[in-house]
Amino acid sequence: MSSVMSTLRDGSQVLKVTVDAVMSNLMGAREDNMIAVVDLVERCRDDSFSFFANPFCDSRLILRKYELINERGEVHDEVKKVVLNAVQGEDLSLKLVSPLFQEAREVTVVKKTELSLQEILARTSRD
Questions:
Q1: Measuring CA to CA, how many Å separate 91 from each of 6, 20, 34, 126?
Q2: CA gyration radius for the chain?
Q3: What 8-state DSSP symbol labels residue 100?
Q4: pLDDT digit string (tens) for 31-44?
Q5: pLDDT tens across 7-29, in order?
Q6: Closest C-alpha to 1, from 107, 101, 89, 114
Q7: How far apart are CA 77 and CA 103, in angstroms?
Q8: Contact 60, 51 (CB under 8 A)
Q9: 3-state class (DSSP) for residue 126
């Protein structure tokens, strides 16, 4: 796996392949249900935030489907960094932007990767 690093808007460094995978999965989750993305952002901002099923969606199921949280509802540190750098606004007015330094424009297309997000994070943890 390539070890090319990307600099996020907050100055932190994350593997480029991780940024691509998180953004692809985040956009997929947004297409399924924006409330799940709002809940993910809340969880990234506050570790004590709890997911719960609501009349509109079960955020936990959607976010697991896109590998943005683990089976315990936790967000991996690398995912959290990308998510927090990739959003602007609050609640349902959230919009996705490029998480990359000096590229804070709205995101419409994200490069797909052949590895799942969990495979990327597992390899990152071993390096």
A1: 27, 24, 9, 35
A2: 14
A3: B
A4: 999 999 999 999 99
A5: 999 999 999 999 999 999 999 99
A6: 114
A7: 22
A8: yes
A9: helix
